[in-house]
Design brief:
Helix content is 47%, strand content 18%. With 108 residues, the protein is an alpha/beta fold. It has a single domain, classed as Transcription Regulator spoIIAA (2-Layer Sandwich). Helix 2 runs parallel beside helix 3 (49-61) and helix 3 (49-61) packs across helix 4. The longest helix is centred in the C-terminal third of the chain and has 16 residues, at 73-88. It is globular and about 35 Å long. The N and C termini lie far apart (37 Å).
């Protein structure tokens, strides 16, 4: 199984703002030949709530195995918030969520 690491700050700069950019990014990674992708969040300072929502939904649909690395505490908090919101409306995650991969603690 081929693996590739993608540095998100090279794709987005240090902030990720729009669903459209996230959607375009996933279209591109879904076309790659590698089956396993590591998305490196190093130097990403901010991601909007809508981008996290889009990310989680597109990750669920992707045929790739995607693992997240180097998330700041602020990013982990945003992912945790959105994951919990999605679960509250009965969205079911079939793949590991970013918070599980990077050690987020579930909010009660």
């Amino acid at each position: 199984m081929a693996q590739k690491t993608l540095l998100l700050n090279k794709e987005f700069g240090d902030n990720i703002f729009t669903r459209h950019k996230m959607s375009s990014f996933f279209k591109n990674i879904n076309k790659t030949k590698e089956d396993k992708l590591i998305l490196d969040f190093k130097n990403i300072r901010f991601i909007s709530r809508s981008c996290v929502d889009e990310y989680l939904k597109l990750k669920e649909k992707s045929n790739k195995t995607i693992t997240e690395r180097n998330m700041s505490n602020d990013l982990k908090s945003m992912f945790r918030l959105v994951e919990n919101q999605l679960r509250s409306v009965n969205f079911e995650f079939t793949k590991e969520t970013p918070c599980k991969n990077v050690g987020c603690v579930a909010m009660n």
